[in-house]
Design goal:
- The protein is built from twelve helices and eight strands.
- By secondary structure, it is of the alpha+beta class.
- It has two domains: 242 residues, MetI-like (MetI-like fold, Orthogonal Bundle), CATH 1.10.3720.10; 119 residues, no CATH class.
- A five-stranded antiparallel sheet has the order 1-2-8-5-6, with no helix packed on it.
């Protein structure tokens, strides 16, 4: 090249170099210098700010969570993208499916965070995750219909370890009344009928458990079933002698129940299982599950990105190799494990490394999804950088975190660039 052409090339490159210097080189240099000064920026602090990276509890938690993110988020996202790419290649509507899976990439991290904050809401009536979880749970373990029930005035029942028990023993031939209050009419079981105290049966203990409340002031008789009052259908009743259950039964639709003569002289107990609170699902955004929950939202967003790149790599895999493996007797799993995955290894490596770089800088999802009560438990380095720099007014420590993040990202980027260059040479 002549000198003139070099000058022209430099002039064309100058705007890009100016932008690169202003937006990349200068901020990096300033962050490195600022990380060596104290909070005010006037006194040289040396490596004190870097020392706090390993002594500050908040930063140590963030570092631990970043390790979790780097290990699990890229691996799960890449694995899911690989599965989607392989399976959609065999279906006629694969393109439509890929479009749907890739659509979350069009949503900003902020919007995705708001969406998943609602998805993980504790209330099953609002949060999709708990609505599904509670539905599955209640399929196998039905919740109690009487969580708020309790004895009213002049009741023969007293509290007993979460349940209730009669004050005195019962006898054969003497009908037992077990009045309770506290259950809203619309919360009564669907099979509940009007309460009825049945006639005594020879050699048996009979009684009734019911909602001793009738709407309307001054209406109804206290301690006796009235015409409009409903029985506690399905209420568990136990006969207890000397601390041991000698008989048990379940109330009928009208609240009536019958116990054998072994219940004579026993106290009747309504066990705590009758009054257990309805299952409310998992605390997805609690201290123990908040990081896996946020990683789940990240996988939802980026699985489409991984799928598209892997599908592009899969399209370049020679079909003759797969067919040859099938002809040699390999089943589909063996073809996938021994042919497809090894041929896709360069693409899988690029996707995984790219996602590792991305998760090291994750901020938005953690900041939006994690509530204030568990944000410390979900903390990551990028979020801690923000908190130190703006909330706690420690720009020196924030700059040290920024430099530390840069040092973590550089080896991964170097590895990715080398692999890409190697692929270009091939």
């Amino acid at each position: 090249m002549t000198g003139t052409r070099r000058t022209v090339a430099a002039l064309f490159l100058l705007p890009a170099l100016v932008l690169l210097g202003a937006l990349v080189v200068y901020p990096i240099g300033y962050s490195v210098v600022r990380s060596l000064y104290d909070q005010s920026g006037d006194t040289f602090a040396g490596f004190d700010n870097y020392q706090s990276l390993f002594t500050d509890d908040g930063i140590r938690t963030a570092l631990k969570n970043n390790v979790i993110w780097v290990v699990f988020a890229p691996a799960l996202t890449t694995a899911l993208g690989l599965i989607f790419a392989v399976l959609t290649e065999r279906v006629r509507w694969g393109t439509a499916f890929k479009l749907v899976v890739f659509m979350p990439m069009a949503i900003s991290m902020l919007a995705a965070g708001i969406i998943f904050r609602l998805v993980y809401d504790q209330d099953p009536d609002k949060g999709v995750a708990n609505a599904v979880w509670v539905g599955v749970h209640d399929t196998f373990a039905q919740s109690s219909a009487f969580p708020k029930a309790h004895p009213g005035r002049q009741s023969p029942l007293v509290a007993d370890g979460g349940g209730f028990i009669t004050k005195s023993p019962v006898s054969v031939g003497d009908p037992v009344t077990l009045p309770l209050v506290g259950v809203a009419p619309d919360q009564m079981p669907d099979d509940a009928k009007r309460a009825a105290l049945r006639a005594p049966e020879p050699g048996k203990v009979t009684g009734v458990a019911w909602q001793d409340f009738t709407r309307g002031k001054g209406v109804g008789r206290l301690g006796q079933p009235d015409a409009e009052e409903l029985g506690y259908a399905g209420m568990r009743v136990e006969a207890v002698k000397d601390g041991k259950v000698v008989a048990s039964t379940t109330a009928r639709g009208d609240g009536s129940f019958t116990l054998p003569d072994s219940a004579d002289g026993a106290q009747l107990r309504l066990p705590a299982s009758n009054f257990s609170e309805p299952y409310n699902g998992l605390d997805w955004l609690g201290p123990s599950l908040v990081t896996p929950a946020i990683i789940g939202s990240y996988v939802w967003m980026w699985a489409g990105f991984a799928m598209v790149l892997i599908a592009a790599g899969l399209a370049s895999v020679p079909r003759e190799l797969m067919e040859a493996a099938r002809v040699d007797g390999a089943n589909e799993w063996q073809v996938f494990r021994r042919v497809t995955v090894p041929m896709l290894a360069p693409v899988l490596a690029v996707v995984t490394v790219t996602l590792m770089i991305n998760v090291l800088k994750v901020f938005d999802l953690v900041f939006i999804i994690a509530p204030g009560s568990s944000q410390d438990d979900a903390n990551v380095l990028a979020l801690e950088l923000y908190r130190k720099g703006f909330s706690e007014d420690q720009p020196g420590v924030a700059s040290a975190i920024a430099v530390f993040l840069l040092l973590l990202v550089i080896p991964v980027m170097w590895f990715n660039v080398r692999r890409l260059r190697r692929e270009v040479r091939r």
